[in-house]
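Changelog note: in this version the structure field was regenerated for every chain. One regenerated record is shown below for reference.
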Amino acid sequence: MTNRRTRPAPRPPEGTPPRAELARQARAVLADAVRIAHWAAGTPGPGTATPLAAHALERAAVVLELSPAQVRAGWDRARLAGLVELHGDTARPGWRLRAWDRDDSAVLRGWVALFDAWSLVHPAPAGIEAGAVAEAVEAVPQVLSLLQLSAGPVTVPALLDLLGQRVAELQEERCEVPLGPGRTAPGAPAGPETAADQAADRATAPARSADLNALLLDWALEGLAAVGALTLGKGHATLTPLGNWAVWVKLEQICVAAQSPAGNIEQSAADMLLGCARLTPGPARDEYRAWLAARTVGSAVAELLAVARGEDALLRGLAFEALRVVGAPAEPEVRAVLAEPSLRPYALLWLAEYEGNDPDDAQDVLSREESTWLWVDTAAAVADHGETGLLVRHLDSAVQGTVPALLDEVRAVGHPRTVQVLVALAAAHPDPALAKAVRRAAFQVHTGGA
């Protein structure tokens, strides 16, 4: 039982189309991506050295009667929306592609994944510093909120003013002072600049900043239009029904978190995960979604993976639960950590479920050694945060089947918490003979004996 008060299911803003209509619009936005995903899934070796190998690009353009630019754009969208997945040189259909024609929720989740990745769909103009681009991406949710609250066209000057204000706030939060040409950072040696030069720099720096913000706003609006989130008119922008719905959903998620007893939205990833540790899966996922909605996808995924690399095994497991809520945008980063032994079992299970495997069967992707490592890591989480009875019951989940076989493989797996786990298990187990065997194993690991 929980005394967490439930909140009535929120209603979308008046005039929002039904989900079936929103899904129809999302299918229209991703129509070329779906065609290319079906083609790629049925074609061996589409190539991975580039977004789409040249020979495959030409072949797809002919078969699908699209231009090479349309094929390239559709291929990128298919990957970002989770419609197709690459495994080596083989493209496989993503679970969303298999459910595309019958599951409106899968369609909308796929489109939201594309919406979240708008800055990848429409790359930033060349020559702009990565930091300025990142600030613009972080400021865009404020721009979208204004568009959603206005419920109609908003002029570009109004959006530009808001973008500039938000970027200035971000710089102030980071204690950054924009440096114009000729200005030096505190403590740096002064150059031969005259007082007149400094005055001129101060006079022209705001104009240069405004020009940069205008360029970045144009890029952001074009990128959001490219994924079907808004339409551009002469000097104004308007959210599409899809964009309006997506922004409302994200704002609603933020409101849910702000009204929750835990107040996780402003917490770090580690504190947020700890705050969700004792929630049941449904409410925990709601908290994850709200926390994610208040951040850019890239920064949220990076923060969750940083927590997963820490020493707390409970947070490691919870971080990957939160990454399951992220879905497709997290796939490249999760795949990239397969080389890290402490994260590999979690990443393999995440990818197996992402690719459509039943969670109950996902364990089959782990080797015997990886399963044993995960067993020890989970036991460490239980020992640190759970009850002794749960640690004893955890014995039943080992793949070895017998305690002697488990102890042999646990000793060999090299998990850094092996000794602590075995000592805690020996202290908790009611069977004296088994506890003695476990203590002996812990001593052998501690002393390096066989």
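Spot check on this record: DSSP finds 22 helices and five strands in the chain. Strands lie at 84-87, 90-93, 154-155, 230-233, 236-239.
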